[in-house]
Request: fold
Amino acid sequence: EVETGRTLTYGELVHKAQSLACGLRWIGISPGQVIALVSYNSLEAQMMILASLLVGALTAILESSFNSVELAVQLREVNPHLLFTEIGKTLPKVEYALAQMTTARLPRVVVNSLHPQPRNYFTINQLMREVEPNFEPEFRSANSLNPIFILFSCGTTASAKGTLISERYFTRSKMFIESDFGISDKRCTTLISSPIFWNSTITTLLLKLNYGHRIVFFRGPPCEAVLIKALHKFHVQLWVASPAVLMQLLDWPVRSRWDFLKVIFTIGMSFTLHSIIRVQDELFSGRVHICQVYGMTETGTLTSNTPSMNKLGSVGRLSHNTELKVMEEGTGLTLGAYQEGELCFKSQSLMLGYYNNPQATQLMFDSEGFFHTGDLGYYDNQGFVYITGRKKEVIKWKSYQIAPVDVEIQLLELPEIKEAVVFGLPNEREGEIVTAAVILHPEYHVTANAELIEATANLNLSNTKKIRGGVHFFQSFPYTATGKPIKNLIVKQVLNHLHKHNNEK
Reply:
C-alpha cells in the first residue's frame, strides 16, 4: 500500500481473510447475501473482498467518490446485509446515505479503523475470529456461473446499474493473461493505479493473487510525483493504467529512465494512435510496450494484445472463444472487414445480467445472444479490432463512466433551466469532459450567467460528474419527429461555436 508503506505476505493475507470470513459467519452472513464496500483501495478492503468470496457472499463494490445521495441510490438497489467503509470523509457520506434508506433492515456496518466506533459499528479487527481448524470455504466448481460480484456500470444510456458477475467472468480473463503473456515469474511487480470499484482493478487483483506476483497499489488517485516515485521505487514491470494518467505524465518536467518497465495495459477510455505515439516517444523513448485491450464491466476482457503482436491504434484481436459481429446502424446488417458499425460480442465472460433488472438486461442482448456495446468500430483483414467512436450516450472522463441524465437532473433543478442536454466533448488529456447545452426560461434570458449555473450545478455533483466543458445557451434545440433533442447536432453546434471563439482569440 504505497501511501502507508504497509505490506502483507500472501500467507498473512490469506490468514486474515479466513479470520474475517469466520467473523462474517459468526454474525450470520451466509451464501448469497450481499456485502457492500464503499472504500478506498486498502489492504482491509482486499481482505473483505476475499473473505466475502470465502463465505459465498455477493460483493457489491460502490463508487466511493459518489456523494451521499448517489450512494443512497446504489445502496437501495443492492440492499446489503453488511457494509464495509472507511473513517474520514467516507463514513459521514455513508451514514447520510443509510439514513435515506426506507428498507426495514439496515446493514451492519464494519469500519476500517483501529479504534472502537460509536453506533455499535464493528471495526475490522473486532470482527476477526480465530480460524477454525476445519475451516472450509464455500465450494464453487471451476468455471462456475454462480454470481460473486455486483459492479456498477452505466451500460449504454441510463444511470449506473448493478452488473451481476460470475466466477467464469474472471476465469476467462485468467486464460487471456496466461495465453498472451505467460507471466510465471513470481518476481514480477504489478502496479494498480485505478480505484477499487473498477472491474479492471478487481480482475487484476484476483489474477495477480493467483500468480503470486507482488502487487503495488494506491489507496486513492496519486499525483504525478508520487506515481513516478512508486514506479521507480518498486521497479514496476507491469502497469495497468488509464490513458488519462499517461497523458498527464506528459506535463511532468523531468524525464525518467524506464529500463525496468516492460508492459503497460491501457484500459477505460479510448487511446488515439497520435496519443500513443506521443506517450511512447516522449515518456518512454520507445522502450515500453503500450497494449490496449477492450472490454466493459458487462463483458469482461474481449480482446487480447501482446508486445509481439501489437498494432498501434488497435485494441488487439478477439480473446479465446469470443465472437464479434459488426452491425450497420439502422439496417442491422452484419458488416465485413474495414466496415464501421456497432461492435457486438458473444463470449463466456459476459455478465449474468443487471442485478434485479431483467428489462434492462434484455435490451442489451439480441436474439443470437450477442451483447450490443454501443461502441463503434471495425476489424481488419488480420482480425485486429479498432474503436472509432460511440453511439451510446455514456461520457467517459478519465475512464470514469458518467450517465448524462444524472447531470441533466441537477441542471433541471435550477430555476433558470427549461431544458438541458448533457454530453461529452473530446479532450486529448481526459477523454471527454462533461458539457451542457441548456434552454433558459424566458424570464432569465437577460440575467442568467453560464459560469454561475455551472458552479451551482456542480455543488450537488460528485467530482467525477462535474461540468468541465461549460454551459452553453441555446434558443432552441433541433428535435426528432418524436420530440427528442438530436444530441449529435447540438454537439456539432457547440464545437463550431468553440472553434469560432478560439479563432477570434
The chain has three domains: 10-131, 166-391, 394-504.
